[in-house]
Design a protein that fits this description.
Elements lengths: L8 H13 L4 H13 L7 E8 L2 E9 L6 E3 L3 H9 L3 E3 L17 E9 L2 E10 L7 H17 L1
Antiparallel strand pairs: 1-2, 1-6, 2-3, 4-5, 5-6
Helix pairs in contact: 1-2, 1-4, 2-4
Length: about 150
């Protein structure tokens, strides 16, 4: 039997849709996503929502540990690599990842899920975990549901 996700994405998607229906703008929607994902607890240590602006990822919302990486050029670090390659990244061991940009020394694994409309990347949900190999396929699928909802609402 496949492992169930810690993250209950359906409740987060409903919260995002409700906020959108009440007139919430992008900043509020991103903050809701960051707060709710982080509230799931381990493995969600730090949640960072970056939006793509002129070839650069710009941090627009986060929950958890702060990061010095408020702007990341496309192609730099795992976040920039995900956009450059147009794919999600589930890195089980960040210490072995070439070019990794550390937000925290405690981070052991990272999940990056693109927010995209068809082939157009709008941004990404970047999640750090203090747990090695912290993100299962079920966790990745749950975060993808949230990213897909944001792509429609933003």
């Amino acid at each position: 039997m496949a492992a169930e996700a810690v993250l209950q994405s359906d409740a987060i998607v409903r919260a995002l849709q409700g906020a959108f229906g009440r007139g919430a703008r992008r900043q509020e929607l991103l903050k809701i996503a960051a707060t709710r994902i982080h509230a799931a607890g381990s493995p969600y240590t730090g949640v960072y929502l970056y939006m793509l602006h002129d070839g650069e990822l710009v941090l627009e919302a986060h929950q958890g540990r702060p990061t010095a990486h408020a702007r990341i050029p496309v192609g730099t670090g795992l976040c920039g690599k995900a956009v450059a390659e147009g794919r999600d990244i589930n890195e089980a061991d960040v210490a072995s990842a070439p070019g990794y940009l550390a937000c925290s020394r405690e981070t052991k694994s990272e999940l990056i899920v693109l927010i995209r409309r068809h082939d157009h990347v709008l941004g990404q949900i970047d999640i750090d975990s203090d747990v090695p190999a912290g993100f299962t396929d079920a966790e990745h699928a749950a975060v993808k549901e949230i990213a897909d909802a944001l792509a429609v609402l933003l």
